[in-house]
Structures are given as C-alpha cells and as structure tokens.
C-alpha cells in the first residue's frame, strides 16, 4: 500500500510533553467497527470491558540508553536499541559520519565503547569495555531516551525517570516505553479485578526503531527492526483458556499486540515464544491472537498507525483521529489513550 495513505495533519499543540496526573485521568477514545467514536476516560475502563476479558501488558523496563560522548574532538550521540550479547549493543548514532570502524568513543563516568561494525541501515555495533554489565554502565553514563518529538522540545529531567516507566516495568532492556500502559495505576487495576477483568504480562524490549519514519513510498519496501520478546508457556495457556471460555484478549499497547501475533499460529492458538520478531502489520492482515487493543495516538505515516488501521480499517481510523484532533486529545507517548474494539 502507498505510505502516503496513512498521512494526516497534526497541530503541534496536540503533542503532549508531560503526562496527566493521576495517570488514569487521561482521556480515552473508544472506537468500534461502526458508529461515532465515544469520548471516555481511562478510569472508566472497568465499566467498558466484560467479565472474563484479559488485558495483556508488556513488563519491559526502559533503560537509560541515550549516551553522549566523544571520539577525539567529535561529539557522538548513541541510542542503544538492541542487545547483541553481554558486551555489544546495536545503536543508532548521531554524527556517524565522524565515526569509523575501530574508533573508541569516550562516554561520561569512564564508560568507553569501540565502534565495531557499521550496518547497512546506518546503525552501529558498539562493544563496551570492561567487565560490568552494560546496564550498570548505562546507569552511570546514560539518560532516559525520550522520544524525539518530546526531547526536541524540552530536556529530560528527574520527573521522566518515573513518568516514562509503567507500573509493570520489571525486565530491563527497552529503549522506549510501552506507553499504552503508562495510564494504569494500582487503583485502576483493583477496579478491573473487581469487575472480573484479568491481566497477564509478557516481555518485548522496545527498540528505538519504533520512532523511525517510514521512508519508503510503499509499505512493501519498508523493513522493520527486530525486537526481542518472550511469552512463557503458562501465560500462553491462560490466554488460550480465557478465549475458549468466551473472554476477549485485549492487548495493552502495540508492543504486546505484535508479540502476541508473532506467537500465534494460523489455528489461533497462542504458543510460548522467545526470540526476535520483526512482524509488520498493515491493512489486509488477519489478526489471530487479539480481540481488541488499548493504545495511544500515533504518528502520521508510522508503522503503528498502519497497525491500528489494519485492526479497525483505514477510513475508520482516519475519522477517529480527525475527531481526536478536533476534540483536543493529546497525542503520542505522554498523550491520551484509545480503546479499539473491532
């Protein structure tokens, strides 16, 4: 499909630079297969779901993966986005034209890495010196990697250390938050449990590739960056049992959705999964694992807007986004939410 079909105009004032407080006070647009979108609030979610439904959260934890360093006098910025092994990470590099294979980059707090290999997509393999786990080095030298549409308008600060982690964050490895779950609070989870809505967790370490624009003119020519994920056998079994009992599996976030779909066969059975996924979902895709999606509002011409258009229909999502923009919904990572029920 033509990528320009997924374009729309978003006024800058609709981009959220901070989250609302409390988190579950964010607005939520409920979109069904027919009829006008319904303006709600996240804290109304227990009354909008059914007893027996299951929400699936991503428990990845964002690491301070943004690094600023020097190669000689040249300033080098690096955003780690995928672990290769204990000492090596793949990274997107700023000012990469000043970098050559074998160059040593000095980061703050005595952290050093060697630019080991340049990849065809322009990213680099960085090999970190020393014996400490890279995550420990990042705690000393790194910063929280806010999305470019926020970081370009204000610096990262202490509030982001908490604001950009979900209440489920446990497994370190993401360089971007699974932002749909930022809206959840212990109080909201208690209300959902009382309403008979269960929840499960999986892990998908979100990479910085989630922010990359689609540069191809046709979706067939776009290559997704792989991300590592895991669904254990007990979680898969419980999700299958919930669906067999008539419950709906509702992914909280596109990351949860992509991993669930990667783990599900043509027979609709969710299976244990551990490894990389580069699944790219566009209109025409037949969903096998999920019955709904809770997600924030996405960028024009992004793979994520293509995904929600695949779930709900392109015209339906274009109308929903036009409504959201006109109604002043807040977009992107710190913005409002939507509940999509095909």
Outline the fold blueprint.
Blueprint: E1 27-31, E2 38-41, H1 45-48, E3 54-58, E4 60-62, E5 66-71, E6 74-83, E7 88-94, E8 104-106, E9 112-118, E10 124-128, H2 134-141, H3 148-151, H4 158-163, E11 171-174, H5 186-194, E12 198-204, E13 227-231, H6 233-244, E14 249-252, H7 254-262, E15 273-277, E16 292-296, H8 303-312, H9 314-326, E17 337-340
Parallel strand pairs: 1-17, 3-12, 3-14, 4-11, 14-16
Antiparallel strand pairs: 1-2, 5-6, 6-7, 7-10, 8-9, 9-10, 12-13, 13-15, 16-17
Helix pairs in contact: 8-9
Describe the structure.
The protein is α/β, with parallel strands linked by helices. It has two domains: 3-62 and 162-340, QueA-like, CATH 3.40.1780.10; 66-143, Thrombin, subunit H. The protein is 22% helix and 26% strand. It is built from nine helices and 17 strands. It has a nine-stranded mixed beta sheet, covered by helices on one side. The protein has a six-stranded antiparallel beta sheet with strand order 5-6-7-10-9-8, covered by helices on one side. The protein starts with 26 loop residues before the first strand and ends with a strand. The model has no long low-confidence stretch (mean pLDDT 95).
């Amino acid at each position: 499909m033509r990528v320009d079909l997924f374009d729309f105009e978003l006024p800058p004032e609709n981009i959220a630079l901070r989250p609302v407080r409390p988190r579950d006070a964010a607005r939520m647009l409920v979109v069904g297969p027919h009829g006008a979108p319904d303006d709600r609030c996240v804290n109304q979610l227990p009354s909008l779901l059914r007893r027996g439904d299951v929400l699936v959260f991503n428990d990845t934890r964002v690491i301070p993966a943004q690094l600023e360093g020097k190669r000689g006098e040249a300033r080098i910025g690096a955003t780690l986005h995928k672990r290769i092994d204990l000492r090596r990470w793949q990274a997107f590099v700023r000012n990469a034209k000043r970098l050559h294979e074998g160059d040593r980059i000095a980061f703050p707090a005595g952290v050093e890495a060697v630019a080991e290999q340049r990849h065809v997509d322009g990213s680099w393999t960085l090999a970190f010196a020393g014996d400490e786990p890279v995550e420990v080095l990042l705690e000393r030298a790194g910063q929280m990697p806010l999305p470019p549409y926020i970081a370009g308008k204000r610096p990262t600060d202490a509030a982001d250390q908490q604001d950009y982690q979900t209440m489920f964050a446990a497994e370190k490895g993401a360089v971007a938050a699974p932002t749909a779950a930022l809206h959840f609070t212990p109080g909201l989870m208690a209300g959902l449990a009382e309403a008979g809505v269960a929840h499960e967790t999986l892990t998908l370490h979100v990479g910085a590739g989630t922010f990359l624009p689609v540069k191809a003119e046709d979706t067939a020519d776009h290559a997704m960056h792989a991300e590592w994920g895991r669904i254990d056998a007990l979680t898969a079994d419980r999700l299958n049992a919930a669906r067999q009992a008539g419950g709906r599996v509702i992914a909280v976030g596109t990351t949860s959705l992509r991993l669930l779909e990667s783990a599900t066969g043509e027979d609709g059975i969710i299976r244990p999964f551990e490894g990389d996924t580069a699944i790219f979902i566009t209109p025409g895709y037949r969903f096998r694992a999920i019955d709904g999606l809770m997600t924030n509002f996405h960028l024009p011409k992004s793979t994520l807007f293509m995904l929600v258009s695949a779930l709900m229909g392109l015209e339906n999502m274009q109308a929903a986004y036009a409504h959201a923009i006109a109604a002043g919904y807040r977009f992107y990572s710190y913005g409002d939410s939507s509940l999509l029920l095909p």
